[in-house]
């Protein structure tokens, strides 16, 4: 009979589970980034959380995307923020990323998150960049995304912007920068923040 194993350590797990109880303890490590607006991170891009995100993004395991988003929702409930009629949007992927993956990871998260809270999702941003952010250095990421994210519809007054992994902050910063004159309140929300070997974008604001 086929045995289900933890994706991180290989221990036996029950049917429908992705990681064991021990490894799941390393998923939830909340942190907070100050940028144009506050950005909240459910955990860090390392250990079991990094493995789960990679399995979600690159092996198209959408069940893991839903699993992680449900944990993100629990984290969001613990954050003390202003109560408004929020819209939910997401950091866009460029054409080549969408073509290779077949989906936009941040949109999967945004859809699930919005459904759990009864909020509306809007496809507010579109990427015009031609290079994948993951393949670029810190400075290259900033140049690649600068002025390459465009608005596709009217901007709501209260907005939550979702992303999967926050690395340098360039993409999230650009999204927030182009809507800052039109919103009354905005916040960012991500599954994970990466430990990047250089200055992050919010530190340069």
TrEMBL record:
Superkingdom of the source? Bacteria
Among CDD domains, the record links this protein to:
PRTases_typeI
Query: What's this protein's family per the entry?
Result: Belongs to the ComF/GntX family.
| Protein's name according to its UniProt entry | Competence protein ComFC
Species annotation: Oceanotoga teriensis
- What is the organism lineage in this UniProt record? Bacteria, Thermotogati, Thermotogota, Thermotogae, Petrotogales
